[in-house]
């Protein structure tokens, strides 16, 4: 009988541990919504969200996007494990997520992130009318990351282009008038045939001082139609 009680106690503890280690989906805290300028009705538009995971019991956030009329409804959730899990130390984990909201018609869209929760944030995204039927008017450099120089307003765009038939033409910078610099590293084709040849590059860019926000988003358009995003604090590293 004593052994039976021991077995029941062990089973109960195992069931309790299993329940504690089963994650549930929860909405995550949002700090800021960034709306880059420059998307038109032929682009896959993006909204960039800055937030944080309260501790390591939360795993990588995932998004759900619904566009209805002129409202972009985004749910940003993570899998949360029980707070008494020994593998969940107390540590805030910041994140930046670029959310693909698809090809949108020309217009002004209201953004709602984690609506009807304590973490709700709202924003606005402007989409211009496309000037042509092309998906994109330019080929952008294949930027993989942005390297900051401490104490400077200069950053480096680093990556690899898949061929040497494209070279840098110009780097255009446009802003949304508030808190985003969209950096557009435009390439030009110099050969008719483009052989496969990985070519590393590093382009220096000086971040303008036009926007007065304490922190701004550097939204760098890349060759694959996506973007590389980095928060910039008055010329200092994050």
Shape: globular
Q: Class by helix and strand content?
A: mainly beta
**SSE series:** HEEEEEEEEEEEEEEEE
Number of domains: 2
What's the story with the biggest beta sheet?
5 strands, mixed
The overall average pLDDT, rounded, is 86
What is the radius of gyration computed over CA atoms, rounded to a whole number of angstroms? 23 Å
Question: Total number of helical segments?
Answer: 1
Give helix % range.
Answer: under 10%
- Enumerate the spans where pLDDT stays under 50 for 5 or more consecutive residues: 8-20
Query: How many strands appear in the DSSP assignment?
Result: 16
Taking the alpha carbons of the first and last residues, their distance comes to 62 Å
Query: Strand fraction band?
Result: over 45%
Written description of the protein model:
There is one protein chain. By secondary structure, the chain is mainly β. It has two domains: 24-127; 139-232, no CATH class. Helix content is 8%, strand content 49%. It is built from one helix and 16 strands. The chain has one helix spanning 2-20; strands spanning 24-27, 30-34, 44-53, 62-68, 71-80, 93-103, 107-113, 121-127, 139-140, 143-148, 154-161, 166-175, 180-189, 199-206, 216-221, 227-232. The strands form four sheets. Strands 1, 4, 5, 7 and 8 form a five-stranded mixed β-sheet that branches. A hairpin with a 4-residue loop joins strand 12 and strand 13. The radius of gyration is 23 Å and the shape is globular.
Provide the descriptors you would attach to this structure in a database record:
238 residues, mainly beta, five-stranded mixed beta sheet, 16 strands, 49% strand, globular
